[in-house]
Amino acid sequence: MNQPVEGVDARTDRVAQGTVGVALLAAFVFRIPWLVPGLSLLLAVGALAGPPANGLHLAIERWVSPRLPAPRSTSPEGKVPEPTVRAQDALAAVILAVASFAFLLGIAVVGWALAIAEAVIAIIAATTRIHVGEQLRRSL
Question: Is the per-residue pLDDT at 125 higher than 60?
Answer without folding.
Answer: yes
